[in-house]
Amino acid sequence: MAEAIIAGGCFWCVEAVFRSIGGVSAVESGYIGGTAANPTYKAVCGGQTGHAEAIKLTFDPAVVSLADLLDIHFATHDPTQLNRQGGDVGTQYRTALFPLDDEQRAEDEAAIARWNEAHPGQTAVTSIEGPATWYPAENYHQEYWEGEGQRNPYCLAVIPPKLAKLQKGFAEKLRA
């Protein structure tokens, strides 16, 4: 098993995408890349800590590669928006990758280059950051889409289009 940490806006929305992928055994929402120890949702959302809302994936590289996961990430969020995703604005919603070793850093760089090459005239502003300390989000943020999220108007507006992009571009990677 391997782990990867990625950020691409609201962690509820990113988590919903990756929970659907075959070979991904766990998705944890949390905070990374800031200055405060043990940040809270309120502090992170208030822009007071410098952390990004992110997800930590646990996956089986024999089933789904890090390169595939990164390509899915770039296809299901907008990597050209600096410090925002849609209506969510602030550094906590930045598009960022947090490699856990040099091999992941190289994979992250390659994924950004692939995206830029495939989208002439656009540039991904996704940062590669770290090393940094991971802090799991509060329990009520975990598996949010499966519970409260399907009654949350924000999630209902943002997550289904991401899942549609996932289905259209990566149907073969979806969990059976």
Q: Can you put this structure into words, describing what you see?
A:
- It contains five helices and eight strands; from the N terminus they run βαβαβαβββαββα.
- The longest helix has 18 residues, at 153-170.
- The strands form two sheets. A six-stranded mixed sheet has the order 7-6-1-3-2-8, covered by helices on one side. Strands 4-5 form a two-stranded antiparallel sheet.
- It has a single domain, classed as Peptide Methionine Sulfoxide Reductase, Chain A.
- 38% of the residues are buried.
- Helix 1 (11-18) packs parallel to helix 5.
- It has helices spanning 11-18, 41-45, 66-76, 102-118, 153-170, and strands at residues 2-8, 24-32, 52-59, 84-85, 88-89, 95-97, 127-128, 135-136.
- The protein is of the alpha+beta class and 176 residues long.
